[in-house]
Amino acid sequence: MGFDGAGFLLHQAAGVPLPSHVLGLLLLTAALFLRVIKLEWVEGSAAFLTKHMMLFFVPLLAGAAAVAPMLGESWLAALVGLTAGTSAVMVGTGLATKWLMREREKREAAGHER
């Protein structure tokens, strides 16, 4: 919650054009990478949230069902946008994971050479 609050303050004070929750996640990610906070401190909460993730999507699905009749003629554009966005996220995640795995292997190989 601290990083979410910091993201909100950053959004309000600096007018950063990103949602405050996204800024909070970026701050948390930076703190993890810079080892300001330890991964062990957030692993339990992250595991719980990941395990129960479907519960967080129920309101989203209910909202989508409520606005479905309003889509009317723009349903195709919405479908294309959702498909393209989801595909872009999946490809980006896959590429980032492959890159991170290669970097880890390089680091481990360099450590064994010493």
Q: Any low-confidence stretches, pLDDT <50, length ≥5?
A: none
Structural class: mainly alpha
Strand residue percentage: under 5%
Q: What oligomeric assembly is this protein in?
A: single chain
N-C termini distance: 42 Å
Number of strands: 0
Rg, please? Answer: 19 Å
Topology order in helix (H) and strand (E) letters? HHHHH
Count structural domains: 2
Tell me what the structure shows.
The chain has 114 residues and is an all-alpha fold. It has two domains: 1-54, no CATH class; 73-114. The protein has helices spanning 2-14, 20-33, 39-51, 53-71, 75-113. It is extended. The N and C termini lie far apart (42 Å).
Concise structural overview:
The protein is mainly α. It has five helices and no strands.
Any key phrases for this structure?
114 residues
Strand and helix layout:
Elements (H helix, E strand, L loop, with lengths): L1 H13 L5 H14 L5 H13 L1 H19 L3 H39 L1
